[in-house]
Amino acid sequence: MAAAAALARLEQKQPRARGPTSQDSIRNQVRKELRAEATVSGNPEAPGNNTVQEPKEEGSAHLAVPGVYFTCPLTGAILRKDQRDARIREAILMHFSTDPVAASIMKIHTFNKDRDRVKLGVDTIAKYLDNIHLHPEEEKYRKIKVQNKVFQERIHCLEGTHEFFEAIGFQKVLLPIPDQEGPEEFYVLGEAALAQPQSLERHKEQLLSAEPVRATLARQRRVFRPSPLASQFDLPTDFFNLTAEEIKREQRLRSEAVERLSVLRTKAMREREEQREMRKYTYTLLRVRLPDGCLLQGTFYARERVAALYGFVREALQNDWLPFELLASGGQKLSEDENLAFNECGLVPSALLTFSWDAAVLEDIRAAGTQPDTSILKPELLSAIEKL
Description:
This protein is an alpha+beta fold. It is 43% helix and 14% strand. It is built from 14 helices and 12 strands. The strands form 3 sheets. The chain has a 6-stranded mixed beta sheet with strand order 7-9-8-12-10-11. Strands 2-1-6 form a 3-stranded antiparallel beta sheet, with no helix packed on it. A hairpin with a 5-residue loop joins β8 and β9 (295-301). It is elongated, with a radius of gyration of 28 Å. The two termini are 36 Å apart.
């Protein structure tokens, strides 16, 4: 929190004309001081520290998974839910020292949450660069008036746009205006950047095609020995949009009213309730029982497609080219080709599935006079097997 606050103050107090080198040195100095303070105070949340503390949740020793975690795509750090935005912001700011163009593009697309406003601003910047590319001899296209209404409404309001102009070769200067007393600020493209039109075109394409930097959900893959507790899931509150108290109340009311509701509800009412049920869960914890009884466990978004689970299982297999099937409770086959989400299949907030080799593969193996291997996971996964 201290790091995020300090960096935010720096962003707000930037001088109008500044060099990227001095700004980087300020950022780095702040981080050094914050790390030094954190080391003295024993604070594990110092910037750049990739360790993750386990949540101090009641009964956490018996949870099926300690919580929901994410991976920063820029640093590879493992983050808790409440760390995501601040740590990604810090990683982007640190990237300015190595690649200011890429960092400014990431800042534009990530720090500004209104996607429509971002698109309008990015398209306007692209138009400026197109005019320079199409009319390299015309000086008027190389100058952008900072107080211009379009610039103020579409570009100035977005974080990262000023850094982008400076990174691609624009300089902020004061120019006299005819019939006006004082000068005004302009972004003027430098001669060095003007001499490399292909670079401007490349930067424009990077800006147009970029996406927000988002932390990816960590699967937290684990392998367990065969266990009679395979179908029991004690989940942390991270897995629910509802509070723990609301969940208990929902479960109690549901068990009391199942029969009555099944008689009284219309089809439309049932469909509306099913939609509400699906929205309750953001994540789901899935276990797959393998032929030897071992369990493969991973965390998924509730709205991810079944194909994601097939890919997750396939990555863990020794022979990942052999076709297989996944069966839900009751023997329901989940097809990899169906475009169904886990919450649409009822596989939320947790579920136990069964792995089975494709029937045709089993026939071929048995016809050859052999039996399929019961241990099908990669050796490195089996070496880390746990007791559930």
